[in-house]
Specification:
The chain is 23% helix and 36% strand. The longest helix is centred in the first third of the chain and has 17 residues. The two termini are 13 Å apart. The chain has one domain. The protein has 1 helix and 4 strands; from the N terminus they run αββββ.
C-alpha cells in the first residue's frame, strides 16, 4: 500500500490543546498508545514513539514544536 504524504497544521483553542496534551501525557505515563483526530483523519501513535521538543527563532516569530515521531511497522 502506498503512503499518502500529508502535512497539516491545525489550530486549537487553549482548552482543546490542554485536553489533548493531558490525554497524551496520561498515555505516555501509562505506556499506552495515543489516538488523536487531526483535520478529519484519525492518527494512532504507538507507545514506542519518540518525543522531541524543537525551538525555532526567526526575525519576526518564534516557535516551539512538541514532536512525536515513529516508524510504521
Amino acid at each position: 500500500m502506498a503512503v499518502v504524504q500529508r502535512d497539516v497544521e491545525k489550530e486549537y483553542t487553549n482548552k482543546e490543546f490542554v485536553e489533548k496534551i493531558r490525554r497524551l501525557a496520561d498515555c505516555i505515563e501509562s505506556g499506552e498508545n495515543f489516538e488523536i483526530q487531526i483535520d478529519g483523519e484519525r492518527v494512532y501513535v504507538p507507545d514506542r514513539a519518540r518525543f522531541t521538543i524543537e525551538h525555532e527563532r526567526g526575525e519576526d516569530e518564534e516557535e516551539i514544536e512538541f514532536q512525536i515521531k515513529w516508524k510504521p511497522e
